[in-house]
Design brief:
2 domains; binds adenosine-5'-diphosphate; 4-stranded antiparallel β-sheet; 10 strands; about 35% helix; binds magnesium ion; about 25% strand
Length: about 260
C-alpha cells in the first residue's frame, strides 16, 4: 500500500483572460518515513504541487491520497512549514506552539510536557514566555517546527523553510530537522532551490521541468549518503560529483528557450 500517492495530477490556473498550465501529468508515490525534495527552475509548479498535496488547492485533474484516503479528508494529519514562520507577534512562544492543539481541543498536560522537551532538545529552553520579536530568525523557525511537530502530523510539507536564514543557521537547522524527523519516523516533502540541501536531507530528489511543470528526473540518493547527517553529507567525497550531475540537469532546464 502506498503512503502518499499522487496520481496523474494536472493543474491549470484560470483567470478571466488567461490560463496557466502549471502542472502536467504528475504521478509520484512517497513511502512512509521517506524524505523527498522538490527542486527545479522558478515557476515549474513546486509550490502548486505542495499546495495540492496539502489539500489547499483542488487539482484540475487527478487525485492525491494519504493512506488511501482522499487528501481533503486528511488535512488534520498534515503539517505545513513555510519560509516565513507566521508566528503571531502578540502571542508568547508557548501560546504560538499550542495554538493548533488549543483550536482542536487537544491541549493536554502530556502535550505541554512534550513541547517543553522539544524546546529543550532544540536549544530553546527558557523562551516559553518570550515574544517572537525577541528571537532570532533561526530560533523562530525552530519554534515553527515545534508547532508543526506537536500536532503529530503524518506528513510534513516544507516550502523553502530555511531560505531566509543565514548560511550557518541554515546548516544547523538542516541537521536538527533531519535528525528530529528521522527519530520520529516522519515523512516529509521539502521544496528547495538549494541542490546541496536537497542532497544532504533527502532519500529522493525530484527534479521538475517547467512550462508546463512536470517531473523531469528522479534521483535516488546513494544509501551511504542517506545514512549521514546533512552536514556530513556535504563533506563526503561523493557529494561534489552528485551535485554536478544534478546541477547540469538543472542548467539544461533553466537555459531552455521556449
Ligand atoms: P514554483 O513554486 O516552482 O516557483 P509555482 O507553483 O509558484 O512555481 O508556479 C507555477 C506556475 O503557476 C507559474 O507559472 C506561476 O506563475 C503560476 N501560478 C502560481 N500561482 C498562481 C495563481 N494563484 N494564479 C495564477 N497563476 C499562478
Ligand atoms: Mg515556490
Amino acid at each position: 500500500m502506498n503512503f502518499l500517492s499522487i496520481d496523474s495530477v494536472h493543474h491549470t490556473y484560470f483567470s478571466p483572460k488567461t490560463a496557466t498550465h502549471a502542472l502536467s501529468d504528475i504521478s509520484l508515490q512517497v513511502e512512509e518515513g521517506e524524505f523527498v525534495s522538490f527542486i527545479g527552475p522558478s515557476g515549474c509548479g513546486k509550490t502548486t504541487l505542495l499546495s495540492i498535496v496539502a489539500g489547499l488547492i483542488l487539482p484540475t485533474q487527478g487525485k492525491v491520497t494519504l493512506n488511501n484516503m482522499p487528501i481533503g479528508k486528511m488535512k488534520k494529519k498534515l503539517g505545513y512549514m513555510l519560509q516565513q514562520d507566521y508566528l503571531f507577534p502578540w502571542k508568547t512562544i508557548e501560546e504560538n506552539i499550542f495554538l493548533g492543539l488549543d483550536i482542536m481541543g487537544n491541549l493536554t498536560e502530556e502535550k505541554r510536557k512534550e513541547a517543553r522537551a522539544l524546546l529543550s532538545e532544540m536549544g530553546l529552553e527558557g523562551v516559553e514566555s518570550s515574544y517572537p520579536r525577541e528571537l532570532s530568525g533561526g530560533m523562530r523557525q525552530r519554534v515553527a517546527l515545534i508547532r508543526t511537530l506537536i500536532t503529530d502530523p503524518q506528513l510534513l510539507l516544507l516550502d523553502e523553510p530555511f531560505s531566509a536564514l543565514d548560511y550557518q543557521t541554515k546548516l544547523r537547522l538542516e541537521d536538527l530537522v533531519h535528525s528530529t524527523l528521522k527519530s520520529f519516523g516522519k515523512t516529509a516533502i521539502l521544496v528547495t532551490h538549494d541542490i546541496g540541501e536537497a542532497i544532504s536531507m533527502s532519500d529522493r530528489i525530484i527534479l521538475f521541468g517547467s512550462k508546463p511543470g512536470r517531473i523531469h528526473t528522479i534521483f535516488e540518493v546513494p544509501s551511504t549518503l542517506k545514512e549521514m547527517m546533512p552536514f556530513e553529507v556535504r563533506n563526503h567525497e561523493t557529494y561534489p560529483g552528485f551535485f554536478q550531475t544534478i546541477w547540469k540537469e538543472l542548467e539544461k532546464l533553466e537555459s531552455r528557450i521556449d
